[in-house]
């Protein structure tokens, strides 16, 4: 893999999750542009720098020995990559402080470097939380590849920080520099809420939750066909989002033991609050994680999953395939993986390569619900 070479460091970086013959690198021209700009402006050990959405730790590892670095993002896999890349490059784990996006990073910060996220609601919430956290004369710089930089990103910077200046393009990347102005304390529009009829629950959704304003159509197709069990069965909602599948299942299976896991800290935060509202103090494990990578083998009877089809800006079935493999390893013999997926993704054929039996439970014109038995 190519190294990231900047005025700050020469780094060997990996993505998470790792895959053989990785086709993508762990940094891009927008990372290089942000670091080049920071070097030109001058940075020293006295400066406090906040990094937002630093995908796999390229910015944090570059700056770790040059200033006081706090990194904040919503990806558990991104946090894992940061830890691995610090160790990989001989940097101390404590050289970078990590704050999940479900919490607010405490300033004051002299610099804020932002990788513009795919979900602009996340960017908006992050900019809102910068209120009161900027040092006098602080500079806020957002970077992205031009193809992933919507006009609305600049509008949000202007609304919450101040006037924005766009840079020239370099290697198809662009920077937006916002000059901080004194503004009234903003009111966040997040979390959002929506209600379901069946089951009759209200769901809250923090800023980076998938389908924040209403139930996604895949889950809508899945809910009427969730299995019900009366006994003490061990169940995981894999990639739980706001927790709707796990909560709906738990309401119909009162003795089931549930684990809800997602790689988004804001999803986990949403799932915890939604579980509490719907099920009170009923025991549950809700965690941020790399899917079921940390789940003991043969420890689950049932896995429910509405798998993702992208990681950041990259579309593909790599994550879904990995989740299917993790589910198989975690299930007992005879255990079942239930999924919903777009018809055209061909999950039926993929699951047949891992499981002894695959059945179609239900179908709509766009989606299929499949049951795979180990």
Automatic annotation (TrEMBL):
InterPro entries: DNA_methylase_N6_adenine_CS, RLMG, RlmG_N, RsmC/RlmG, SAM-dependent_MTases_sf, Small_mtfrase_dom. One of its GO terms (molecular function) is 23S rRNA (guanine(1835)-N(2))-methyltransferase activity. GO terms for cellular component: cytoplasm. It catalyses: guanosine(1835) in 23S rRNA + S-adenosyl-L-methionine = N(2)-methylguanosine(1835) in 23S rRNA + S-adenosyl-L-homocysteine + H(+). It is found in: Cytoplasm. PROSITE patterns: N6_MTASE. The keyword Signal does not apply. Belongs to the methyltransferase superfamily. RlmG family. Specifically methylates the guanine in position 1835 (m2G1835) of 23S rRNA. This is Ribosomal RNA large subunit methyltransferase G. It comes from Pseudomonas berkeleyensis. The gene is rlmG.
